[in-house]
Amino acid sequence: MEILEFGIMGALFDHFKKLFIKKPKLTAAEVEELRIAFKERYHSFKLLLNANNKALEIMADMERVLQGQQLFGMSFIRASCTAVSVNVFSMIKNINTLAQGKYADLNARFNDIQQKIDSMLSQKKAIRDERLVISLEAVNKEMTDSVGNKMAHLGEIKNRLGIKIPGGFIITATAYERFIEENDLQVEIDRRFQSMDGDDMEKLYTLSSEIQQLIIKSRIPDDLADAVRQAYNKLESHTKGKLTLALRSSALGEDTRESSFAGQYLSELNVSFDSIFQAYKEVLASKYALQAIVYRLNKGFKDEDISMCVGCMAMVDAVAGGVVYTRNPVDMRDDSIFINSAWGLPKSVVDGSDACDLIVVSRKLPMAVIHEDVKAKERKFICLPEEGVCRMELTGDKKDLASIDHHQALDLAELAVKIEQYYAMPQDIEWAVAKDGAIYILQCRPLKQMETLKTDLSEPVLKSAHDAVIAMGGITASPGTACGQVYLADKGIDMLRFPEGAVLVTRQALPRWASLLNRSTAVVTEQGGFAGHLASVAREFGVPALFGVPDIVNRLKQGQEVTVDADSLTIYKGKIEALLVKSGPKKYLMQGSPVYETLKQVSGLITPLNLLDPDSPYFSPANCKTFHDITRFIHEKTVYEMFNFGKEHDFSEKSSKQLFYNVPMQWWILNLDDGFKKEVDGKYVKLENIASIPMLAFWKGFSAVPWEGPPAIDGKGFASVVFQSTTNRNLIPGLRSAYAARNYFMISKNYCSLSSRLGYHFSILEALVSERSMENYISFQFKGGAADHQRRLRRVHVIAEILQEQSFRVDVREDNLIARVEGHDMDYMKKRLEILGYLTLHTRQLDMIMNNNAALNHYMLKIEKDMRNILDSK
Hints:
Elements: H1 2-20, H2 28-67, H3 74-98, H4 105-121, E1 133-135, H5 144-159, E2 168-171, H6 173-182, H7 185-194, H8 201-216, H9 222-237, E3 245-251, E4 267-271, H10 276-285, H11 290-299, E5 308-314, E6 320-325, E7 337-343, H12 347-350, E8 357-362, E9 368-373, E10 379-383, E11 389-393, H13 406-423, E12 427-433, E13 439-446, H14 459-467, E14 469-472, E15 475-478, E16 481-488, H15 494-497, E17 502-506, E18 520-525, H16 533-541, E19 545-547, H17 552-555, E20 561-565, E21 570-573, H18 577-580, H19 594-603, H20 627-648, E22 657-660, E23 667-671, E24 684-686, H21 693-702, H22 715-727, H23 737-740, E25 743-747, E26 751-758, E27 761-768, E28 777-784, H24 789-805, E29 809-813, E30 816-822, H25 826-842, H26 853-872
Parallel strand pairs: 16-17, 17-18, 18-19, 22-24, 23-25
Antiparallel strand pairs: 1-2, 2-5, 3-4, 3-5, 6-7, 6-12, 7-8, 8-9, 10-11, 12-13, 14-21, 15-19, 16-20, 20-21, 22-23, 25-26, 26-27, 27-28, 28-30, 29-30
Helix pairs in contact: 2-3, 2-19, 2-20, 3-4, 3-20, 7-8, 8-10, 21-25, 25-26
């Protein structure tokens, strides 16, 4: 007990000694030394604030991307993580310069968070099978990570169902990695992707060309060349006659139900051994074809996860070929089997370059052809005698004849149903009929079905729509209705000029047009069917597509506004609102994708804010769980260190002064440089001695309209405040409550930083306002409130709407608001600061009435009126 009393008496003695014992006056040399020290601290302070602003902007951008419809790849994630990391590290370095290493514990938290982020970004699928080449006879569906989905499922139906597949072998994912490593390509590819803009088609086109050339000019490793040569020789020994190959892409992730990659990669047909390695590199390079890059971006695939396997199969010199759908892709209720067929190789069916026959077979036993539509087929693809393929014109009666007979159609239907039953889901199957009549399956993948929606329209609307009809006919390649301006596309260069939200109109449904689907509202073509690659991708992207509309390119004009109703096979002039009701918002394909989930994971270590109140005992480096927590902690401590420097060193010229003004709150001001008109002796500074342009603008708005006190609240609002005050640990006052209760300005003539605590509300304002418009900015953060979570959220969104109307760029995360405006002239920026000053005072305690619409409307009308007066005042 005596020891305790002695300790208390000693503490009291020290306290009184500080109060009554006069400190010795500083010499001129000591004052100059302090000036230099303060200048260094001020420099660190400015660097820290700059890093803080950059870090918060990057965090806001990451959140915006997660919540929006923007395309992004791993290059965006890596660049964002690197940038935020660099700026947070800079903040830690500068706070420790300011505080002479007092917050060194932040380094450990930073390193721990950074290691977790690095681990997430370095994750990559492991390839377990080290073989460079695998025979198709040894492949099954469990080997997708080694040979890709396409070849894994061909091996499955060949080896376990006994279905006829051309013989062949697969150049594996391990071989791809070996090729990339041998030529040091990945680092160069990653470097080029770092500067990629997913919305700039011209830059994407250039990027695509450059990377493809890098791959094509690269060298095949000796061990890979030997393995391919041995596999070819073995296959040739089992082949009657000359052996040529079809080299088909089988990339990891390809041919799944949600991501078919239909037509995005290259197939090289009728390849001799002399050309096999060049063809192999061409297929590898097609991973970076423009349409493939755009497809992966939209679907959120990581570039490093897509190893390009290549299936090398004996070429079938087909007399006819095409695609079987085991169900109707645009009508889930229709279980008929749809066979699309053409003379020669299946290429003209899958690439949409010519008309094809349609045979519909009923699956009810006995199977029967229930519909047949035989088209005039102008051309066919055939194999050349040595190697390669060519397109030959069809003449005479053959072009009007059915490319397969009913017996062949029924045989195909039986094979298709057998495959569907094995996989227990609808299938999309490519096939070919050889010269000896044998049917070969060349590919099978899950078929994605969609529902065609019908709309019941009133008689007046029907008549109005009928009067606006431009064209009718064709087939529904992808269901839905959309409106936009016509863009007539013919050549590859047209892809670079295609405007956002246009209707793509073209003659042939070629796979290359898939690169425009993310920017198109609808697609209309003169040729092509719903079995083509472009149709498949349109359905995946949810873009309405109407194919096979005769002479539509000549009937529409560039820039003409049209409504495309793919469901009713009709194109209308202008915008038909009644038809557009049934079409929902365009799908955001990235959500849930590997890239999206990676950003979501790393953002969890970067953007959430857990440290809310500096008064809480939990406000410490040890409780910083994210980079945002570190920035919040550092910002708070920076203000504290800057304000206490003058006091700790009895440096009155740079110590904080209290604003002498008739307001109930305490406002403390630290003159960083030239924020005062003249130096101030004593504790107080008057407003007329303030020279800071942004502070005076803020204060003008703050004092423009007297505060009428808190709004009248109902029982629920009051109960919510009481409950939050007693349960929210972040609202518990701590030992530093005297500091936290104050409002702090740090100012120079053109700069102002404000940390404001009004009740339970916390805000940070930083502004630079000068004659140089390009350097001007205002950054504002708002957080807190004592009401329940829902009321706080609603209040933040109300403030966000107000600031957006005043041209602020606003980001809201939960009940935390970040707003920024920049690049305007001085008068414009001063008015925005006046608005912020007004809102800082007059949005106090509004969270308590957020569920009372009548009271809220009353205050919003008053706020709107007051703000108009502020903006109109001089």
